[in-house]
Write a structure and sequence with these properties.
By secondary structure, this protein is α/β, with parallel strands linked by helices. It has helices spanning 13-22, 34-42, 51-55, 68-75, 99-111, 124-130, 141-152, 166-194, 199-207, 214-218, 241-257, 263-280, 289-293, and strands at 3-7, 26-30, 46-47, 60-63, 90-93, 115-118, 121-122, 133-138, 155-162. Helices cover 50% and strands 14% of the residues. Strand 4, helix 4 (68-75) and strand 5 (90-93) form a beta-alpha-beta unit. The chain binds nicotinamide-adenine-dinucleotide (NAD).
Amino acid sequence: MAEVAFIGLGNMGGPMAKNLLEAGHAVTVYDLSAAACEQMKLAGAVVAGSALDAATGRDYVISMLPAGKHVADTYLGSDGLLSKLDGTTTILDCSTIDAATARRVGEAAAGKGIGFMDSPVSGGVAAAAAGTLAFMCGGDAATFEKARQILQDMGKNIFHAGPAGAGQVAKACNNMLLAIHMIGTCEALEMGARNGLDPKVLSDIMLASSGRNWSLEVYNPYPDVMPNAPASNDYKPGFMVDLMVKDLGLAMEIAQQSDIDNAMGQLARELYRQHQEAGNGQRDFSGILRRLQE
Ligand code: NAD
């Protein structure tokens, strides 16, 4: 059992912190939202009045915050946690943020002898609740080995991607590819449907052929092909378009910094941005099919 501080108790952080409680850890929580804290108190957590109170003296600090700015504010600067904590605490930031901020926090932590890993997740709210998230970690090998068990209490697949920042790069690569193959899958299914093919039959054909991909396998974007996919539930998320646009923005930053010509990624971002502007930000990202149908 470990003493864990959990900061950021939203759609993802709330269920992740609950899984730590269920695994028998002592969890102290902090969130700007009193309602989110109250929920966790009912689940058995101790509520702290500040991030520092939550973090002081704990074995692990885990954060699940909206963006790089919130992570930088929490850890860096004269009021940041890194200026107050010591090497007995290990920090795991599971937020999806820019790789540059993750590296900055990682370097500041290393300067103080504090273990840090950017540990963004793949899987969404359902996987957070089920404890089946995939974690992509950026940090040194010793920190990874130390943190593996606690990450396993919230997830199923735990990967060491490389040094600080590598977790965020892995997540951006994955989500850029996801956006591209989701749009490609929608185009193929719509083209088949307009030519008289049954989308379910076409899906089966492509699943057994070289067009096979994750969107076809577990997240078919065409309504009524898969009863449990968001497409069969009016594109209720799932994974929201707003979050896909955010993740593609992070991927474009990395592509620019590394001077890569990612024409497909840029186009996918533009199409998702248009879909968001058309009022679909809170709908599931597989609903980009509707863009082709309108
Ligand atoms: P959310 O908006 O539901 O939750 C964020 C929480 O952080 C809120 O409760 C907010 O009050 C709290 N918060 C903000 N600033 C804070 C601060 N300074 N101190 C303490 N608490 C603070 O967001 P979410 O959906 O839980 O996503 C969290 C992170 O996980 C994001 O980086 C997101 O990109 C990533 N992510 C989300 C999903 C998903 O499906 N929702 C999937 C994978 C990754």
